[in-house]
Amino acid sequence: xxxxxxCTTTQNQLKHHGIGVYTKNVVKNIIRYPExxxxxxxxxxxxxxxxxxxxxxxxxxxxxxxxxxxxxxxNTLWFNxxxxxxxxxxxxxxxxxxxxxxxxxxxxxxxxxxxxxxxMILPIxxxxxxxxxxxxxxxxxxYWIELNKSKKCKGIVVNSxxxxxxxxxxxxDYDPNKIKVVYLDAELEGTSPNWDEKLPHDYxxxxxxxxxxxxxxxxxxSKGVVDGYSNLLQKLPSKEKAPYLIIAGGNFVxxxxxxxxxxxxxxxxxxxxKIILTGFxxxxxxxxxxxNSIAMLxxxxxxxxxxxxxxxxxxxxxxxxxxxxxYPEVLxxxxxxxxxxxxxxxxxxxxNVYQNREYRDEIVRKGLERAQQFSWEKTAAExxxxxxxxxxx
Length: 393
Fold this sequence. Notes:
By secondary structure, this protein is of the alpha/beta class. Helices cover 39% and strands 15% of the residues. It has helices spanning 18-30, 50-53, 75-90, 121-125, 133-147, 161-170, 203-206, 222-235, 257-268, 286-291, 307-315, 327-331, 343-355, 357-371, 376-388; strands at 2-6, 37-42, 60-64, 95-99, 113-117, 155-158, 179-181, 208-211, 244-248, 275-279, 295-298, 318-322, 336-338.
Protein backbone atom coordinates (compact mmCIF):
# COMPACT_ATOMS: atom_id res chain seq x y z
CA UNK A 1 0.00 0.00 0.00
CA UNK A 2 1.14 3.52 -0.83
CA UNK A 3 -0.44 5.97 1.59
CA UNK A 4 -0.42 9.68 0.72
CA UNK A 5 -1.24 11.95 3.67
CA UNK A 6 -1.95 15.67 3.75
CA CYS A 7 0.17 17.01 6.64
CA THR A 8 -0.21 20.74 5.96
CA THR A 9 -2.34 21.34 9.06
CA THR A 10 0.85 20.76 11.08
CA GLN A 11 2.22 23.95 9.50
CA ASN A 12 -0.51 26.53 8.95
CA GLN A 13 -2.71 28.39 11.45
CA LEU A 14 -4.34 25.11 12.47
CA LYS A 15 -1.17 23.48 13.80
CA HIS A 16 -2.04 24.05 17.48
CA HIS A 17 -5.78 23.52 17.02
CA GLY A 18 -7.52 20.16 17.29
CA ILE A 19 -7.09 19.36 13.59
CA GLY A 20 -3.36 20.08 13.62
CA VAL A 21 -2.81 18.16 16.85
CA TYR A 22 -4.74 15.23 15.40
CA THR A 23 -2.70 15.19 12.18
CA LYS A 24 0.61 15.40 14.02
CA ASN A 25 -0.13 12.53 16.39
CA VAL A 26 -1.75 10.20 13.87
CA VAL A 27 1.05 10.67 11.33
CA LYS A 28 3.73 10.28 14.01
CA ASN A 29 2.34 6.87 14.91
CA ILE A 30 1.03 5.63 11.58
CA ILE A 31 4.38 5.89 9.75
CA ARG A 32 5.75 3.14 12.01
CA TYR A 33 4.28 0.47 9.72
CA PRO A 34 7.26 -0.67 7.61
CA GLU A 35 5.23 -2.57 5.00
CA UNK A 36 3.63 0.63 3.69
CA UNK A 37 5.19 3.42 1.66
CA UNK A 38 4.20 6.85 2.99
CA UNK A 39 4.23 10.12 1.05
CA UNK A 40 3.72 13.09 3.37
CA UNK A 41 2.59 16.31 1.70
CA UNK A 42 4.11 19.39 3.33
CA UNK A 43 4.71 23.04 2.53
CA UNK A 44 8.26 24.41 2.28
CA UNK A 45 8.01 25.46 5.92
CA UNK A 46 8.49 24.19 9.50
CA UNK A 47 6.08 21.57 10.81
CA UNK A 48 5.22 20.19 14.23
CA UNK A 49 6.28 16.86 12.69
CA UNK A 50 9.85 18.00 12.02
CA UNK A 51 11.35 16.33 15.09
CA UNK A 52 9.64 13.04 14.25
CA UNK A 53 10.69 13.15 10.60
CA UNK A 54 14.38 13.79 11.32
CA UNK A 55 14.97 10.05 11.70
CA UNK A 56 12.33 8.79 9.29
CA UNK A 57 12.69 5.36 7.69
CA UNK A 58 13.27 4.74 3.99
CA UNK A 59 9.59 4.00 3.43
CA UNK A 60 8.65 7.57 4.43
CA UNK A 61 9.15 10.38 1.92
CA UNK A 62 8.37 14.09 2.16
CA UNK A 63 6.76 15.76 -0.84
CA UNK A 64 7.11 19.55 -0.78
CA UNK A 65 4.16 21.30 -2.42
CA UNK A 66 5.12 24.96 -2.32
CA UNK A 67 5.34 27.86 0.07
CA UNK A 68 3.34 28.03 3.29
CA UNK A 69 -0.19 29.38 2.95
CA UNK A 70 -3.12 29.80 5.30
CA UNK A 71 -6.26 27.75 5.00
CA UNK A 72 -8.75 30.25 3.55
CA UNK A 73 -11.32 31.03 0.85
CA UNK A 74 -8.84 30.14 -1.90
CA ASN A 75 -8.39 26.55 -0.74
CA THR A 76 -10.35 25.03 -3.64
CA LEU A 77 -8.49 27.04 -6.28
CA TRP A 78 -5.12 26.29 -4.71
CA PHE A 79 -5.96 22.59 -4.36
CA ASN A 80 -6.79 22.22 -8.04
CA UNK A 81 -3.83 24.22 -9.36
CA UNK A 82 -1.03 23.33 -6.91
CA UNK A 83 -1.97 20.40 -4.71
CA UNK A 84 -3.68 18.01 -7.11
CA UNK A 85 -0.85 18.08 -9.72
CA UNK A 86 1.59 16.91 -7.02
CA UNK A 87 -0.74 14.08 -6.03
CA UNK A 88 -1.05 12.94 -9.64
CA UNK A 89 2.73 12.87 -10.01
CA UNK A 90 3.29 10.46 -7.13
CA UNK A 91 0.20 8.26 -7.20
CA UNK A 92 0.57 4.60 -8.16
CA UNK A 93 -1.83 1.70 -8.64
CA UNK A 94 -1.86 0.93 -4.92
CA UNK A 95 -2.12 4.55 -3.71
CA UNK A 96 -4.68 5.65 -1.16
CA UNK A 97 -5.05 9.22 0.00
CA UNK A 98 -5.77 10.05 3.64
CA UNK A 99 -7.31 13.46 4.17
CA UNK A 100 -7.29 14.64 7.83
CA UNK A 101 -8.93 17.99 6.94
CA UNK A 102 -11.54 18.06 4.19
CA UNK A 103 -11.44 21.81 3.61
CA UNK A 104 -7.90 21.50 2.27
CA UNK A 105 -9.36 19.51 -0.63
CA UNK A 106 -10.65 15.98 -1.24
CA UNK A 107 -9.20 14.16 -4.29
CA UNK A 108 -11.82 11.40 -4.19
CA UNK A 109 -12.36 11.59 -7.97
CA UNK A 110 -8.63 11.26 -8.72
CA UNK A 111 -7.68 8.35 -6.44
CA UNK A 112 -9.15 6.24 -3.60
CA UNK A 113 -9.59 8.52 -0.61
CA UNK A 114 -10.32 8.02 3.07
CA UNK A 115 -11.50 11.15 4.82
CA UNK A 116 -11.44 12.26 8.45
CA UNK A 117 -14.49 14.24 9.57
CA UNK A 118 -14.00 15.93 12.93
CA UNK A 119 -17.50 17.35 13.41
CA MET A 120 -20.55 18.89 11.75
CA ILE A 121 -20.55 22.07 13.84
CA LEU A 122 -20.82 24.56 11.00
CA PRO A 123 -24.02 23.30 9.35
CA ILE A 124 -25.63 22.53 12.70
CA UNK A 125 -25.17 26.12 13.87
CA UNK A 126 -25.27 27.61 10.35
CA UNK A 127 -22.16 29.60 11.22
CA UNK A 128 -19.47 29.13 8.60
CA UNK A 129 -17.62 32.37 9.29
CA UNK A 130 -17.35 34.75 12.23
CA UNK A 131 -17.36 37.60 9.69
CA UNK A 132 -20.34 39.32 8.06
CA UNK A 133 -23.29 37.68 6.28
CA UNK A 134 -21.58 37.81 2.89
CA UNK A 135 -18.49 36.01 4.20
CA UNK A 136 -20.72 33.45 5.90
CA UNK A 137 -22.61 32.86 2.64
CA UNK A 138 -19.43 32.46 0.57
CA UNK A 139 -17.83 30.10 3.04
CA UNK A 140 -21.03 28.07 3.25
CA UNK A 141 -20.95 27.46 -0.51
CA UNK A 142 -17.29 26.44 -0.35
CA TYR A 143 -18.01 24.14 2.59
CA TRP A 144 -20.64 22.14 0.74
CA ILE A 145 -18.74 22.10 -2.56
CA GLU A 146 -15.89 20.35 -0.78
CA LEU A 147 -17.82 18.14 1.65
CA ASN A 148 -20.05 16.81 -1.13
CA LYS A 149 -16.92 15.11 -2.48
CA SER A 150 -17.06 12.90 0.62
CA LYS A 151 -19.84 10.93 -1.07
CA LYS A 152 -17.20 9.42 -3.38
CA CYS A 153 -14.74 8.57 -0.60
CA LYS A 154 -13.91 4.91 -0.07
CA GLY A 155 -14.31 5.36 3.67
CA ILE A 156 -14.73 7.97 6.37
CA VAL A 157 -13.10 8.14 9.80
CA VAL A 158 -14.99 9.98 12.54
CA ASN A 159 -14.01 10.68 16.13
CA SER A 160 -17.27 9.69 17.82
CA UNK A 161 -20.58 7.97 17.24
CA UNK A 162 -22.11 11.42 17.62
CA UNK A 163 -20.18 12.71 14.59
CA UNK A 164 -21.11 9.61 12.59
CA UNK A 165 -24.79 10.09 13.34
CA UNK A 166 -24.62 13.78 12.45
CA UNK A 167 -22.85 13.10 9.15
CA UNK A 168 -25.50 10.55 8.17
CA UNK A 169 -28.24 13.12 8.80
CA UNK A 170 -26.78 15.16 5.94
CA UNK A 171 -25.71 12.18 3.80
CA UNK A 172 -28.22 9.41 4.57
CA ASP A 173 -27.30 7.45 1.42
CA TYR A 174 -23.67 6.95 2.45
CA ASP A 175 -23.00 3.38 3.60
CA PRO A 176 -22.71 3.52 7.42
CA ASN A 177 -20.50 0.41 7.31
CA LYS A 178 -17.85 2.52 5.58
CA ILE A 179 -17.73 4.98 8.47
CA LYS A 180 -15.30 4.04 11.24
CA VAL A 181 -15.50 5.54 14.74
CA VAL A 182 -11.97 6.04 16.06
CA TYR A 183 -11.52 7.85 19.38
CA LEU A 184 -8.74 10.39 19.79
CA ASP A 185 -6.42 11.19 22.67
CA ALA A 186 -5.01 14.29 24.35
CA GLU A 187 -1.44 15.36 24.89
CA LEU A 188 -0.18 17.03 28.04
CA GLU A 189 3.38 18.10 27.35
CA GLY A 190 5.52 18.06 30.48
CA THR A 191 5.48 20.59 33.30
CA SER A 192 6.71 24.12 33.91
CA PRO A 193 8.09 25.81 37.06
CA ASN A 194 6.20 28.94 35.97
CA TRP A 195 2.83 27.31 35.39
CA ASP A 196 1.08 29.56 37.94
CA GLU A 197 2.72 32.87 36.97
CA LYS A 198 -0.57 34.37 35.77
CA LEU A 199 -2.73 33.17 38.66
CA PRO A 200 -3.78 35.38 41.61
CA HIS A 201 -1.31 35.39 44.52
CA ASP A 202 -3.87 33.80 46.85
CA TYR A 203 -5.08 31.02 44.54
CA UNK A 204 -3.73 28.34 46.89
CA UNK A 205 -5.93 29.60 49.72
CA UNK A 206 -9.07 30.12 47.67
CA UNK A 207 -8.71 27.53 44.93
CA UNK A 208 -9.97 27.89 41.39
CA UNK A 209 -12.04 26.37 38.61
CA UNK A 210 -10.59 26.39 35.13
CA UNK A 211 -12.02 26.87 31.66
CA UNK A 212 -9.88 26.30 28.56
CA UNK A 213 -12.50 26.87 25.89
CA UNK A 214 -10.11 27.74 23.11
CA UNK A 215 -12.34 30.28 21.37
CA UNK A 216 -15.36 32.49 21.98
CA UNK A 217 -17.37 31.00 19.13
CA UNK A 218 -21.09 30.52 19.75
CA UNK A 219 -20.94 26.74 20.09
CA UNK A 220 -18.32 27.03 22.87
CA UNK A 221 -20.91 28.57 25.23
CA SER A 222 -18.28 30.61 27.09
CA LYS A 223 -20.95 32.90 28.53
CA GLY A 224 -22.61 29.81 29.98
CA VAL A 225 -19.42 29.15 31.97
CA VAL A 226 -19.53 32.71 33.34
CA ASP A 227 -23.23 32.35 34.20
CA GLY A 228 -22.65 29.07 36.02
CA TYR A 229 -19.79 30.57 38.01
CA SER A 230 -21.92 33.60 38.87
CA ASN A 231 -24.59 31.23 40.17
CA LEU A 232 -22.00 29.42 42.30
CA LEU A 233 -20.97 32.69 43.95
CA GLN A 234 -24.57 33.31 44.94
CA LYS A 235 -24.63 29.98 46.77
CA LEU A 236 -21.48 30.68 48.81
CA PRO A 237 -21.51 32.76 52.03
CA SER A 238 -18.61 34.99 50.97
CA LYS A 239 -17.83 36.14 47.45
CA GLU A 240 -14.48 37.46 48.63
CA LYS A 241 -13.34 34.04 49.93
CA ALA A 242 -14.81 32.12 47.00
CA PRO A 243 -12.64 30.24 44.48
CA TYR A 244 -11.62 32.01 41.30
CA LEU A 245 -12.62 31.13 37.76
CA ILE A 246 -9.51 30.97 35.58
CA ILE A 247 -10.13 31.35 31.85
CA ALA A 248 -6.99 30.35 29.98
CA GLY A 249 -6.31 31.03 26.32
CA GLY A 250 -5.10 33.78 24.05
CA ASN A 251 -8.38 34.17 22.15
CA PHE A 252 -10.14 35.62 25.20
CA VAL A 253 -7.83 38.64 25.37
CA UNK A 254 -7.78 39.55 21.68
CA UNK A 255 -9.08 42.87 20.35
CA UNK A 256 -11.74 41.41 18.07
CA UNK A 257 -15.46 41.98 18.56
CA UNK A 258 -16.31 38.58 20.06
CA UNK A 259 -13.55 38.69 22.68
CA UNK A 260 -14.28 42.31 23.57
CA UNK A 261 -17.98 41.55 24.05
CA UNK A 262 -17.09 38.56 26.22
CA UNK A 263 -14.89 40.67 28.50
CA UNK A 264 -17.66 43.28 28.74
CA UNK A 265 -20.07 40.52 29.71
CA UNK A 266 -17.81 39.58 32.62
CA UNK A 267 -17.50 43.22 33.66
CA UNK A 268 -21.25 43.81 33.49
CA UNK A 269 -21.73 40.96 35.97
CA UNK A 270 -19.21 42.56 38.33
CA UNK A 271 -16.88 39.58 38.11
CA UNK A 272 -13.73 41.16 36.69
CA UNK A 273 -11.91 40.60 40.01
CA LYS A 274 -13.02 36.98 40.35
CA ILE A 275 -12.62 35.80 36.76
CA ILE A 276 -8.98 35.82 35.69
CA LEU A 277 -8.08 35.85 32.00
CA THR A 278 -4.57 34.46 31.68
CA GLY A 279 -4.15 35.00 27.96
CA PHE A 280 -1.84 32.65 26.08
CA UNK A 281 -0.30 29.80 28.05
CA UNK A 282 2.42 27.36 27.05
CA UNK A 283 1.61 23.72 26.30
CA UNK A 284 3.78 22.59 29.22
CA UNK A 285 1.61 24.63 31.62
CA UNK A 286 -1.65 22.85 30.78
CA UNK A 287 -1.27 19.81 33.00
CA UNK A 288 -0.53 21.79 36.17
CA UNK A 289 -3.22 24.37 35.47
CA UNK A 290 -5.70 21.51 35.24
CA UNK A 291 -4.42 19.24 38.01
CA ASN A 292 -4.38 22.03 40.60
CA SER A 293 -7.94 23.12 39.86
CA ILE A 294 -11.07 22.18 41.78
CA ALA A 295 -12.72 21.25 38.50
CA MET A 296 -12.52 21.91 34.80
CA LEU A 297 -15.56 23.26 33.00
CA UNK A 298 -16.36 22.61 29.36
CA UNK A 299 -19.90 23.56 28.46
CA UNK A 300 -19.57 23.64 24.69
CA UNK A 301 -22.94 22.97 23.08
CA UNK A 302 -21.38 20.88 20.35
CA UNK A 303 -18.06 19.11 19.79
CA UNK A 304 -17.05 16.25 17.55
CA UNK A 305 -14.92 14.63 20.23
CA UNK A 306 -13.80 17.05 22.93
CA UNK A 307 -10.08 16.57 23.45
CA UNK A 308 -10.27 18.99 26.38
CA UNK A 309 -12.27 16.46 28.40
CA UNK A 310 -9.58 13.83 27.98
CA UNK A 311 -6.96 16.41 29.00
CA UNK A 312 -8.91 17.12 32.18
CA UNK A 313 -9.31 13.45 33.06
CA UNK A 314 -5.64 12.70 32.36
CA UNK A 315 -4.52 15.64 34.48
CA UNK A 316 -6.55 14.40 37.44
CA UNK A 317 -9.20 17.04 37.89
CA UNK A 318 -12.98 16.72 38.05
CA UNK A 319 -14.64 17.39 34.69
CA UNK A 320 -17.95 19.25 34.43
CA UNK A 321 -19.31 19.12 30.88
CA UNK A 322 -22.45 19.90 28.91
CA UNK A 323 -24.81 16.96 28.58
CA UNK A 324 -24.91 16.93 24.80
CA UNK A 325 -23.20 16.00 21.53
CA UNK A 326 -20.23 13.66 22.15
CA TYR A 327 -19.65 14.45 25.82
CA PRO A 328 -21.68 11.61 27.40
CA GLU A 329 -19.93 9.21 25.00
CA VAL A 330 -16.43 10.47 25.82
CA LEU A 331 -16.88 10.71 29.59
CA UNK A 332 -18.84 7.46 29.86
CA UNK A 333 -19.78 8.14 33.49
CA UNK A 334 -16.38 9.53 34.46
CA UNK A 335 -17.44 13.16 34.80
CA UNK A 336 -20.34 15.41 35.74
CA UNK A 337 -22.88 16.16 33.01
CA UNK A 338 -25.04 19.27 33.23
CA UNK A 339 -27.26 21.37 31.02
CA UNK A 340 -24.70 23.96 29.94
CA UNK A 341 -27.45 26.51 29.32
CA UNK A 342 -28.87 26.13 32.84
CA UNK A 343 -26.78 28.28 35.18
CA UNK A 344 -28.48 26.85 38.28
CA UNK A 345 -27.52 23.31 37.29
CA UNK A 346 -23.96 24.35 36.46
CA UNK A 347 -23.60 26.29 39.70
CA UNK A 348 -24.89 23.35 41.74
CA UNK A 349 -22.38 20.98 40.12
CA UNK A 350 -19.56 23.41 40.88
CA UNK A 351 -20.73 23.68 44.47
CA ASN A 352 -20.87 19.91 44.95
CA VAL A 353 -17.24 19.33 43.94
CA TYR A 354 -16.17 22.30 46.08
CA GLN A 355 -17.92 21.21 49.27
CA ASN A 356 -17.68 17.42 49.00
CA ARG A 357 -14.07 16.26 48.75
CA GLU A 358 -14.94 12.55 48.67
CA TYR A 359 -17.35 13.11 45.80
CA ARG A 360 -14.74 15.08 43.86
CA ASP A 361 -12.06 12.45 44.48
CA GLU A 362 -14.35 9.74 43.15
CA ILE A 363 -14.97 11.73 39.96
CA VAL A 364 -11.22 12.21 39.55
CA ARG A 365 -10.57 8.48 40.07
CA LYS A 366 -13.12 7.51 37.44
CA GLY A 367 -11.68 10.10 35.07
CA LEU A 368 -8.15 8.75 35.41
CA GLU A 369 -9.41 5.23 34.66
CA ARG A 370 -11.40 6.41 31.65
CA ALA A 371 -8.45 8.41 30.28
CA GLN A 372 -6.34 5.25 30.09
CA GLN A 373 -8.64 3.97 27.35
CA PHE A 374 -7.49 6.69 24.96
CA SER A 375 -4.12 6.71 23.18
CA TRP A 376 -2.76 8.14 19.93
CA GLU A 377 -1.12 4.78 19.22
CA LYS A 378 -4.54 3.16 19.31
CA THR A 379 -6.02 5.95 17.18
CA ALA A 380 -3.32 5.50 14.53
CA ALA A 381 -3.55 1.69 14.56
CA GLU A 382 -7.32 1.63 14.08
CA UNK A 383 -7.10 4.29 11.38
CA UNK A 384 -4.35 2.40 9.55
CA UNK A 385 -6.24 -0.91 9.59
CA UNK A 386 -9.39 0.82 8.34
CA UNK A 387 -7.51 2.46 5.45
CA UNK A 388 -5.75 -0.81 4.64
CA UNK A 389 -9.10 -2.60 4.38
CA UNK A 390 -9.80 -0.72 1.13
CA UNK A 391 -6.60 -1.84 -0.63
CA UNK A 392 -8.05 -5.07 -1.98
CA UNK A 393 -11.44 -3.60 -2.84
